[in-house]
Each structure stands twice: as C-alpha cells, then as structure tokens.
Amino acid sequence: MATATAGEPNRNVNTLVVGGGQAGLAISYCLGRAGVGHQLLEQRAELGGAWQDRWDGFFLNTPNFSVDLPGMPYGGPHPEAFLPRDEVIGYLRRYAQAAGVPVRTGTAVTRIAPDRGGFHVETSAGPWRAENVVLATGAYQVPRIPALAKDIPGHVRQLHTHQYRNPQQLPAGAVLIVGTGQSGGQIAEELLAAGRLVHLAVSTCPEAPRRYRGQDVIRWLMELARHGPDVGLNGLQVEQLPSPKARFACNPLVSGVDGGHDLHLRELGRRGVRLHGHLEGVDDGDLVVSDDLAERLAQVEAAFGQRFQPMIDAYITAARIQAPAAEPRAADDWLPPAHSRLNLAAEGITSVLWATGYRLDLSILDLPVLDEWGYPRHHRGVTEYPGLYAVGLPWLTGHGSALLSGVGRDAAFIAEHIAAR
Q: Measured between alpha carbons, how far is 213 from 207 in angstroms, rounded to an integer?
C-alpha cells in the first residue's frame, strides 16, 4: 500500500477514486489489473472504511465465506463464523497492502466539477485533475436523526449508533432505542446483557432466520444474486425493485454475535425489552408512540415468507439443489401491554439511541447527475456524466452491490469501462 503525502503541484491522474472502504479498494484492485493509472483518496487517517464507526461489540452479520473482495476471498478455517469489527478492518488493510493500492489517507474530497472534458477535484490537501472519477464513498455517510430529536429534553443523552461504542458510554438508567434494523436489534441485545432496561421503538425492518433449509440465509441470497438469473430468477436485481426508494430499505434482522443467531422482537420482549410502536413525537416530557405494535410485529415477521423465502425455494427447485425441507415457524402471538405514551421520568429513560440509519450525501458533486433521492443516475455504475462512475452503493445493480460479497462484480465492470475509454 502506497501512502503519499500532500503538496506536490500538477497532480494529474487518469482516474481518481473517492473513498477507501471496501468499494474503493475493490475498484482500485480492478483498475490496477486493467492497467489504468489511478489514485485513491480517503478522508480518514487510516483505512478500514465505515467499519471503524461500529461499536466495540460489533460482528459482521454475513458469514466469513461472504468476505470476498476481488483476488482475496476469505481463506481462514472458519467460513461459517462471523468476523468481529477489528478483524474486518484488519482484512481491508491487508487487502490494500497486498493489492498495492495507491492511497492517500487524510485527504477529504470537497468538490468535483467538470474541467476540459475531465474533472477538477478539490481536496483538503489541494486540487487534482482527472479524466475519470469513481465515487466509492459508500452508503454510511450522514447519520439520519429525526427532526423530533430536538424536542427531547436536554438532560436525556442522545446518540446515533454511529457514535455508540459500548454500554458504559451511556448514563445510568433505561435506554430507548429507536429503530429495529440490524444495529438496533443487536445493540438492544448487548444492552440487555449488560443489565440495562431497554425500550425499543419498533420499525418495519424484516426478521429473517439465520439458517434456512440447511444453509445460512446469506448463502442462499448470495447464490440467488450470482446465479438466479441463470435459471430465470431476477428478484435480487435492481430492475425488480418496486420503486427507487426500495434501494434504501433496511436489511433483514439477524445477528452474527456468539456464532450467529436469529433475532426475534417478540423474544426480546419476553426477555425484558419493552417494545413500543413507532416514535411519533414528544409532548411535555412524554414520548408519543403509535398504537400499531401488533400490526408492526406481524409485518416484520411475515416479510421473509412473503419476499425472500419464495425466491430461495424457487431457486433450490430450479437449480436442482438437494436441500432439507423448510421448517415452518412456530406461531407466536405474544404481545406486551400497549402504551401510546411514555413518560421519560417515570420510565427512568436517561438516553436515546437513534438506530435510524444513514442518508447519502454526494453534495461534493458540482454536476447535475443526482436523482430526487440523492442517488446518481446511472447504468451499472456508469453515470449520465461521461467519466463519472459510482460503486458500492446499495442496490447499484443488485442486492449485493454494497456488500463484501458483491461489490467486486460491479467494480470489475466499471474498471473495464474506464479502461475502454
């Protein structure tokens, strides 16, 4: 890995890659293999991408066999296990070293503008000029915090999961977690294990079984993404999404902690987590929540069977795979007492943890290429503006486009397109 210092004049390069996470490293590897001169710029002081923003007890939710960047698939002894945060970061740094990625860390890109058929790129370490620019900034850029956060009393500590590191970081007392995606669900378990009283405002992220028909569910989703089109199953391709908004839907709720396991909201409730509906507002020290918890739980539990299970079953049949029969999920109608308001003082809630995801921020672009969602208009990562590319965004071409298991396919295509220019 070549890390250079800033300050040289006349910095011109064929291709600039913006972002040094898994997407940036994958496209750098592919550009190098294609013989394209390039430079990668990373705003952080060290490589490791957004994984460095995860909490201390974080584990990948996808098994080790899915750690598969181009030229360096997982080769360890535990393919069905799950890497903790620091090992994911270490893998990315080793990958950059082995691939000889030309990277400048501590260099934030602040503006990308057209310049004589190429691009003028302003950075915290001075300007660059490039014939091509690849946006590899990822999907985890700006923490999304609801506007109602400003109405929560000042004595209650508020953190986004982006800032959360461990239970000791929070003041004594009960914790309200808003959102039940993968981060919200796993942190709820962590805080419960630490002896904290946890309140959980339930979103509509789907639950999924950790294992289905003899395999980790991620194995089936990877197979579907890679080989489903070969047997006429295209449900994990971007063209099959019901709307552009669906690109930002949350991932299925599972956990990679303790060797990997299912995460079920009703079970968390039985273990002491207090479940509530959607957080709708703040009124004189009370939190107002929706009264549709039963409907939300039913929707969360039904989603896998409505969307993913039929695709997996169809793939197993079409590909003539011998797999065990599906085990029906046991009926569960447990519900906690219903509440439409929570009094912060009465419940002893001293902190709120926003597990509400992130939003894209490509405001560095001085180019008219973003749609109403802030997503670049493109075809297979080739944007409408000649020479500008994107890689590593959610659902760029399919379900795996932002994942360690899938980003390499998009990166290879984009590198070929740049080389052909």
A: 16
Domain shared by 393 and 411, yes or no: yes
Judge if 70 and 91 occupy the same domain.
Answer: yes
pLDDT in tens, 360-382: 999 999 999 999 999 999 999 99
Kindly state whether residues 125 and 182 are assigned to the same domain: no
Helix axes 217-227, 309-318, angle to 10 degrees: 60
> What is the number of structural domains in the chain?
2
Domain span holding position 382: 2-141+360-420
Asked if 198 contacts 350 with a C-beta cutoff of 8 angstroms, the reply is no
Q: What is the pLDDT of residues 255-289, one digit of tens each?
A: 999 999 999 999 999 999 999 999 999 998 899 99
Residue 312 to residues 63, 105, 238, 290, 363: CA-CA distances in angstroms?
Answer: 18, 41, 17, 34, 38
Residue 193: CB atoms within 10 Å: 13
Statement to judge: residues 20 and 77 lie in one domain? yes
Are residues 308 and 402 part of one domain? no
Single out the residue in 334, 357, 380 at which a domain terminates: 357
Q: Answer for the pair 377, 369: CB distance below 8 angstroms, yes or no.
A: yes
Q: What distance in Å separates the CA atoms of residue 87 and residue 327, rounded to the nearest whole number?
A: 34
User: For residues 144, 148, 153 and 157, what is the CA-based torsion angle, rounded to 10 degrees?
Assistant: -10
CATH assignment of the domain containing 73: 3.50.50.60
Mean per-residue pLDDT over the chain, rounded: 95
Q: What is the pTM of this model?
A: 0.94
Q: Which residue has the tokens 């990822």?
A: 138
Please tell me which residue, 330 or 95, carries the higher pLDDT value: 95
